[in-house]
Amino acid sequence: MSAPRTLDVGALPPGAFGSRSLMWWGTMGIVVIESTVFALAIAAYFFFRTRLPAWPPDGVAPPDLRWGTINTIVLVASCLPNQLAKRAGERVNLRGVRIWMLVCLAFGVVFNVLRAYEFQHLNVLWDHDAYGSIVWVLLGLHTTHIVTDFLDTAVLAALMFIGPIEEKRFIDVEENSAYWYFVVLAWLPIYGVIYWAPRLM
Amino acid sequence: MTARLELPHAGEDLAMLEATWAEPRGFVGWCTHVDHKSIGRRYLVTAFAYFLVGGALAGLMRLQLSRPDNTWIGPDLYNQIFTTHGTTMMFLFAVPVMQALGVYFVPLMVGARGIAFPRLIAFSYWMYLFGGLFLFTSFLLNAGPDAGWFAYPPLTETLYSPSKRADVWAQLITFTEVASLAVAVSLITTVFKMRAPGMTLNRIPIFVWAQVVTSFMVLFAMPAVMLASTALILDRLVNTHFFDVEHAGDALLWQHLFWFFGHPEVYIIFIPGAGLVSMIITTFSRRHMFGYLAVVLSLVSTAFMGFGLWVHHMFATGLPQLGESFFTAASIMIAIPTGIQIFCWIATMWSGRIFVRTPMLWVLGFFAIFVCGGLSGVMLAAVPLNIQVHDTFFVVAHLHYVLIGGAIFPLFGAYYYWFPKITGRMLSERLGRSVFGLFFVGFNLTFFPMHVLGLHGMPRRVYTYPAALGWGSLNLAASIGALLMGFGVIVFIVDALRALRAGEVAADNPWGAGTLEWATSSPPPNSNFLRPPTVGGREPLWDNPVDQPTVVGLRADVRDVLVTHVLDAEPDHRVEFPEPSLWPLLTAIATTTMFIWSIFTPWGVVYGSVPVFIAMVGWFWPHRPDEGGTQPWPIRHRTLPLPNEAPASGGVI
Amino acid sequence: MRSGEVIQSVLSPAGAQAANIYHLWSVMLLVATVVFALTMALVVFALVHGIRGDAPSSERTLRRAVYVALALTVVILIGLLIESVWTGRNIASLHASSAVTIEVTGHQWWWEITYDDTVASRRVTTANEIHLPIGRPVVFKVTSRDVIHSFWVPNLHGKRDLIPGYITAIWLQADRAGTFRGQCAEFCGLQHAHMGFDVVAEPDADFVRWLDGRRQPARPPDSALEQRGHDVFMANRCAGCHTVQGTAAHGQVAPDLTHLATRLTIGAGTLPNTSEHLRAWVQDPQASKPGNQMPPNPLPPDDLEALLAYLETLR
After folding, report:
1. Taking 50 as the threshold, does the pLDDT of residue B6 lie above it?
2. The whole model's pTM is what?
3. Which residue in chain B is spatially nearest to C161 when comparing CA positions?
């Protein structure tokens, strides 16, 4: 009897970067889910807007531009160390990963602290009316993301210092930076809605 | 003819392979399982148990309504019963059971050794289990939700629902949505990245396509209900004003958010059912599905269109006429892709060589019942008729015809079809016919009269009704029908228990089917396939040439899995899957604690998130230097490919 | 015997809107029956031939058959869509400046009914019963004071949800005399099942007479018994919730009782309005409508009889 035909995959690498990796798909799944949540929350914001004669209602002032705009700049700026961390990951450059992830974390501390100032300068409380509720929830949803993004970056950074480190961890660094990008990019429309919609409408 | 090769290859150690993929024994071991078959089995059993609970609640409802002015169950208990019935069936049974079938069978049908993100699947199961236990415990403590499965504010705001019941409902949503979203992400990844080499997109089994389409729907629909239920909890707990008209809130916002989820939800339930119908008809007609491409595109277009119908649940709120007409048109037009599938099924049967066994009986029953439900759906799409029969028993009839007809009948067919594969035993054909008969007759006796009751003015969600309105005899008939359905389910359980102990032993492929789950033993070995298959056609067991290659080269000493390219399933790289782990359970316990704590105080989220964080760190933190199967540090150069690079060396025949 | 098949039925239209809808229903029922029969015939046909294994000669035949079936489906669906939109136009086409305007406000678990008038003093407030003139358009402006309810008189028209924060208008017209029943059709809590109301369609002259009668305040009590009953009403908590026009009772949270004795039912369609039922209701409304907002009133028997005599005078 002739030898049965086989497809030998033994020489294939034990991992791959980017969209070839399963983790990328998992991360994209989360991105899709969270984007939908943000989009629906923004839709709810405008639903209220169409139902009420004045916006913000009840003579409330729009949120102060200062802290939100500063924080937007910080968040966008954090894309630079994020990109450098991503690149270091793709080059399995451990020193580069360590440095740039620490820089990302420093940015993370700053934008989380600034976020607290943003909350304090919204000029409305969540229990004032529906406008207050949706503004706090929009900002709160995004804050949940910057907090968790900070925490999982911190844990991964700790792992890259403490170990055990293997080549697969550099794929995790790349995925983490993709999620960081999502969190920053998702902020832009939310910033626009919270800070500019009441001024432009 | 199956191309199964029995001779061992050089360097192959099947015993070690099976030992590597074996799951630990004992109760603690069971808590650490990550094998998709193990998790899939417990998901199926739990879903069936929840189905029995939901059915028992329905039985109580039918008993109460069997005669007019009945005082056996008072309004408060009745409201909890019907709410828990609907919530259980929709959130704890209909979607999870289809996802459970996906968890068990999708990896097998695509020829993979496991499911993507196994620990996430385990976590999903625990969240599902705890969510259900949380709901039923609350019900037994007289804190069961009582404002309907759709929980409209203002009724569910604190002012009109002062107890914790509405919070229980809202948090149950969070449990089930987390569980469902996790499975959806995992299934999408598995189907796109872990298919057997040769399984190009147009060779993916229709049931697997249905699971992919459903999973995408879950990703886009479930956030809507999560956002709504979170807003409700916030209104009740910390005084936000989303739905509170006194402070610029809006009751209709809830309806838009809820139904934006709620309409796709019913397609999330039906589309897997349609996938099961395609599968069973293919097997029992012994021919390829006629119009494969049309059927797959119909599933996809149903999913898209399903997101554009939600306002038809709100026709009675007095919306502008032009807007209503759009949703009428969309709600009618969605019948077209479903019609395409029906005609393809009929064409397949017509040109096949049919043999009828119990699974096929259930599919025939599906035709009668689902088509009837679809027709009453077209009626409901028409606004003038809708505003008469909305919120009456006409809708109760419609929804049960489409959901039981469109999902549960195919599900029972799938139970008979796949029971041999999961357990290695056959269910009884004779008893199967009795179960079908009892259920079919009982179903129609229960639900057909409800069309008439609705037209005669009987609204939904009433714990009793006056004798003078003449609704008594039809209600009595419905209650008798429910008893028949109950008997059918009991016979099914009896047969299943009997078969597990002493049923006829099942062959690998008792139905002569064509898809890959039948290419392995019944039940499958730990590693799913002793030798992973490749495919040369859409029904591999029918189409594969005799010398179709099998995959070699995967390691037997670790859980080595093949990852392939999205479009053409060419081999790409290998991945080491995780060993059994307690962390998914621990994370689920921490998350459950946080969820339940947070319905009593907002600080529950803050304090409760700490154990969740700790558990997730434990989950993620590796134990060994090469836990992912790649090079431990230090290494000189990157060995793993970037997205635009070819692999170091490709597959070799 | 009053039966849902007649007095609370989609299939017994008494007005133009319900009649249009009934026509649409008939068309759709016919089409659905034919389509169902055809589809089942196709399934049986396919099953029989499939079992015999005498397949058609080519995939081309199959494809043609599927296309024909699909084309037929699309044509039928478009036809039904047109029929639906056309019916919608018909039933919405009713507007008149001389319409009777009725405001309906939903409460847990009763209906506040106000007949509007350009002259404020001629507005009529009542509860749980509506009279309509035959042949005249009526516009209902509906809202809710608490949770979502739904106003539904199937003999006359489809339903309209009563949503707090929204006031919407629904137009209908009764075209024949009759006494019909409506019922709340949106789950609204504990006694959703017992939130019905009566609708009397009558000739215009009778309707005008009825409405004029509603405008009169309650007549003062005649006999000593009635006077005693009046005093019981005012001294107990009745006046805190209910209004009786022309007396000191101005409660706003319960049905207006000024003309209670002429109403067909009590408790929002829960019990027929007889002296036996009224006695039982006043003593313990929780017995027939558990959880509703009216507490039990354990009165001494003499007070109770006097109160009932007084309530009898509220015509």
Report:
1. no
2. 0.97
3. B317
